[in-house]
Write a structure and sequence with these properties.
single chain; mainly alpha; 6 helices; Integral membrane protein (Rhomboid family); DoxX; transmembrane helix; membrane
């Protein structure tokens, strides 16, 4: 019984994790570029924070619906690795002290999604079944 429950629900939980992580990730981009829900800081166009904000919003939206899930998750995983080593690691070797714990988690969640796919509740899966 427990094995069947895990087998049936594991792909669905993957979809739920993808959606929740993407929504939280998008919040970072909307905060940077749109000032929502916090005040944001409106980075200069084409600066690194601006590009990150664009990737957070567009990539997050793609992951929410599960479209181009694997390549998008791979790019966002790289973005978070880059952000960690560029912005957080120089402050301290400890993620709790350098504020990079979210970047690490996003990096590895997105890396997992890049390999696992978007799960059954994704546009990618609907398109795969259709063809």
């Amino acid at each position: 019984m427990a094995d069947r429950l895990q087998t049936d629900w594991a792909p669905r939980i993957l979809s739920i994790v993808r959606i929740v992580a993407a929504l939280i990730f998008m919040e970072h981009g909307t905060s940077k570029l749109l000032g929502f829900p916090s005040g944001g800081f409106s980075p200069e166009a084409f600066s690194l924070p601006w590009v990150a904000g664009i990737l957070e919003i567009v990539g997050g939206a793609l992951l929410v619906v599960g479209l181009f899930t694997r390549p998008t998750a791979f790019v966002l995983s790289g973005l978070m690795a880059f952000a960690y080593w560029l912005a957080h690691a120089p402050k301290s070797v400890y993620p709790l002290l350098n504020g990079g714990d979210a970047a690490i988690l996003f990096c590895f969640i997105f890396l997992y999604i890049a390999f696992a796919g978007g799960g059954p509740w994704s546009v990618d899966e609907m398109l795969r079944k259709k063809s």
